[in-house]
Design goal:
Length: 112
């Protein structure tokens, strides 16, 4: 059974940083690309970043490019997202995704 478990969310001031983690289990982590999505209150879920399998190439939404960094640790079956220079508009529930599988989400709140 596939499980994706996010952690690392919290409350942070504008300009601050957080690192999200997503622990994967129940599938062959090395063969799948991994994504982060987010959903802000009253808005649709949007794609944020992707890290491919193999080379681990990273891709980002324009809204986070230069501020967020996605990475993966094959030894730990974990994908990370380092978020820096956080803005009020980054407030959302952040979800880990692989193929058709989703985690439960972790809340990130950026507020002064």
């Amino acid at each position: 059974q596939v499980h994706l478990v996010e952690s690392g969310g919290g409350l942070v001031q504008p300009g601050g940083s957080l690192r999200l983690s997503c622990k994967a289990s129940g599938f062959t982590f090395v063969t799948y690309g991994m994504n982060w999505y987010r959903q802000a209150p009253g808005k649709e879920r949007e794609w944020v970043a992707r890290v491919t399998s193999g080379t681990g190439a990273a891709f980002y939404a324009d809204s986070v490019k230069g501020r967020f960094t996605i990475s993966r640790d094959y030894a730990k079956d974990t994908v990370y997202m380092q978020m820096s220079s956080l803005k009020l508009e980054d407030t959302a529930v952040y979800y880990c995704n692989s193929n058709t599988h989703w985690g439960q989400g972790t809340q990130v709140t950026v507020s002064s």
